[in-house]
Design goal:
Elements: H1 2-20, H2 24-57, H3 64-113, H4 116-121, H5 124-166, H6 168-177, H7 179-215, H8 217-222, H9 226-252, H10 254-282, H11 294-335, E1 357-364, E2 373-380, E3 385-389, H12 396-403, E4 411-416, E5 419-420, H13 426-430, E6 433-436, E7 445-446, H14 447-451, H15 460-469, H16 473-477, E8 486-487, H17 496-510, E9 514-518, H18 526-540, E10 544-548, E11 560-565, E12 568-573, H19 575-581, H20 584-592
């Protein structure tokens, strides 16, 4: 199990590095600046030590000229180090947020390439959490890694070099004690990984619940499920609290533990270094291997602090990076989810569509061992109006999904103008259909932007003409700013019927060669529905149309009515002939008008 996690982490880190490689020149500059910052930071204690020795060991008094030169040199080094720090942080920010931008762009591109089967099974909130929250957490960890990890490692190496040059014996104390920090940090980090992983999953679950409740708040209130939702939220929130608390608790142990080790290092340097200073006062022939000056001890104590400080930072960075890697693995898992079937090689761009549609021996199943559509065949001629009716779950909407190639058939074929739709580009296929669904979708923006979504270059005259044909012009005029009224996500303040009318207007504007109406008037009042049906009748003239309806009174004028049951066509004909047969259609029709 542990080996599997390590393999996943290694693969995730490899993927992160693959994104970073595009910014190698900037990364090299950042490393050079980090080295310059470390050198400048380590050189300052040397200058301080020399200044201290001027006071204690100067013969004939303090050499103030030399002291001034030391102070000027310190000022220059401090300014150069500060400027280098600012430039390095700017570069690190640039790299981090460009990497994050690249990952989010890839995630959004892949979202459009995913099959609907994946999106139907995956909670919306989980996907949102991966693209937003997980990427933000990853960005924080990556930025901390760039900012503190590189400088921390270089500070440790640079300090070792400076200390070894000053006093090899005292340096041995530091070298032997500090590895304890690594062991402590590694032990704690190993135990926090699972908690951070659990935290990310539970947070995604919580986001999914919140998204679901916001979108369905009316349903919650209708069925008085507020308390049940609160209980469910509290249960998830409680698990998130426990997981987060444990993750933070264990990760917070790193800093005090490493600080304790660092204090041991400082104390060891003070004791051993003090011994060498006293020895230096006692011996006339002093050298760096047997003695230290007070200034050198001051420098050494500063180094001991500087040497141990990166261990604190690196231990904190390791914890953040671990959390970042967990979040990165979740977003990469999404990006690498199996995409939809790619376009066929040399896929045709269908044009000049007349409306010939043919389904031959189509079979389809959502679940492997549960067939839904079986041996379904249908030939539709240009201009025909085909109504599809039947009980819930019989496969009506599934037929629409297959026609639009939201799903691919398991067996058989669907052709438009004699071309198998699997050999046609999806964009050209879907551009041949105008579709109005029972579930409306509107984006945040103006009424005008929503109407002309399928035809961005439409003129005001065309938009108004489409709105009048769809009977939406009258209510649009009553809005505060007419066609320039801004509506919120999914229609905001509009009623369900008004949203439906806007979706119908959108299709009226495009007038594609084929139409799909899936309960298109389900949310409209009876009076408006009659007018819309007349508009539809005019719009459908000469256009192949597929109409899914539960209200059978709306499809009396259809040329062909397909009656479905359990994925099969059980009856076929026009309204009058099907009624005269007294079969399943007649049973459905009579049940709707039974008193």
């Amino acid at each position: 199990m542990k080996s599997k996690k390590q393999d996943i982490n290694k693969k995730t880190i490899g993927k992160i590095l693959n994104y970073i490689r595009h910014y190698i020149p900037l990364l090299v500059i950042s490393l050079i600046l980090a080295a310059a910052i470390v050198v400048g930071t380590l050189y300052i204690p040397v200058l301080i030590g020399r200044a201290v020795d001027l006071f204690l060991y100067g013969k004939g008094g303090v050499d103030f000229d030399e002291l001034y030169r030391i102070l000027i040199r310190m000022g220059i080094v401090i300014v150069l180090t500060a400027v280098s720090q600012w430039v390095m942080n700017t570069i690190n920010n640039h790299i981090t947020y460009h990497v994050v931008e690249d990952i989010r762009n890839d995630a959004m591109r892949h979202l459009h390439d995913l099959p609907l089967s994946y999106l139907d099974k995956q909670p919306t909130g989980d996907i949102v959490s991966r693209i937003v929250a997980d990427v933000d957490t990853f960005a924080d960890g990556l930025l901390m890694g760039f900012t503190k990890f590189f400088t921390g490692v270089m500070t440790i190496l640079g300090t070792l070099v400076f200390m070894l040059r000053t006093s090899p014996f005292v340096s041995i104390v530091v070298i032997f004690i500090t590895p304890l920090s690594f062991f402590v940090a590694k032990f704690i980090a190993t135990h926090t990984h699972d908690y951070f992983q659990s935290q990310s999953k539970i947070r995604a679950e919580q986001t999914a619940l919140i998204d679901e409740m916001i979108g369905n708040q009316k349903i919650v209130k209708i069925f008085a499920k507020e308390e049940a939702v609160k209980d469910r939220f509290n249960e998830i929130n409680g698990r998130l609290h426990d997981s987060s608390l444990k993750a933070v608790f264990y990760s917070s142990l790193v800093n005090p533990s490493t600080r304790f080790v660092n204090s041991l290092v400082y104390a060891g340097v003070a004791v051993v270094g003090g011994f060498f200073v006293i020895r230096g006062f006692a011996l006339e022939n002093a050298n760096i291997f047997t003695t230290l000056t007070v200034g050198e001890l001051t420098c050494f104590l500063t180094y001991a602090n500087q040497y141990t400080k990166p261990f604190n930072e690196i231990s904190g960075v390791v914890t953040e990076l671990q959390n970042a890697v967990v979040c990165a693995s979740r977003i990469f898992e999404f990006i690498e989810a199996k995409p939809r079937t790619p376009e066929a090689e040399n896929a045709a761009v269908i044009s000049d569509v007349k409306g010939n549609v043919s389904l031959k021996n189509v079979e389809f199943r959502y679940v492997e061992d549960k067939p839904l559509i079986r041996d379904f065949s249908l030939d539709v001629k240009p201009g025909q109006r085909v109504a599809i009716v039947g009980p819930t779950g019989c496969g009506k909407t599934t037929i629409i999904n297959l026609l639009m190639r939201f799903y691919d058939v398991d067996e058989g074929s669907i052709s438009v103008e004699g071309l198998d739709i699997r050999n046609v580009t999806r964009d050209s296929l879907r551009g041949s259909y105008g579709m109005v669904l029972q579930d409306t979708w509107l984006k945040a923006g103006t009424i005008r932007e929503n109407i002309c979504m399928g035809k961005p270059d439409a003129t005001d005259e065309e938009i108004i003409a489409a709105a009048k044909a769809a009977h939406s012009h009258s209510f649009i005029k009553r809005l505060p700013n007419g066609y320039d009224t801004v509506i919120g996500e999914d229609g905001g303040m509009l009623s369900q019927g008004q949203k439906q009318l806007l979706c119908i207007t959108r299709v009226m504007l495009c007038l594609p060669p084929m139409l799909i109406l899936d309960e298109a008037t389900s949310s409209i009042d009876t009076r408006t529905e009659i007018r819309i049906q007349k508009a539809f009748a005019k719009m459908m003239q000469g256009r192949t149309s597929f109409i899914v309806a539960h209200r059978l009174s709306t499809i009396k004028e259809a040329d062909v009515i397909l009656v479905m049951r359990d994925g099969n066509i059980v009856e076929q004909g026009d309204h009058e002939s099907l009624l005269s047969k007294g079969g399943f259609y007649a049973e459905l029709y009579n049940s709707q008008f039974a008193v």
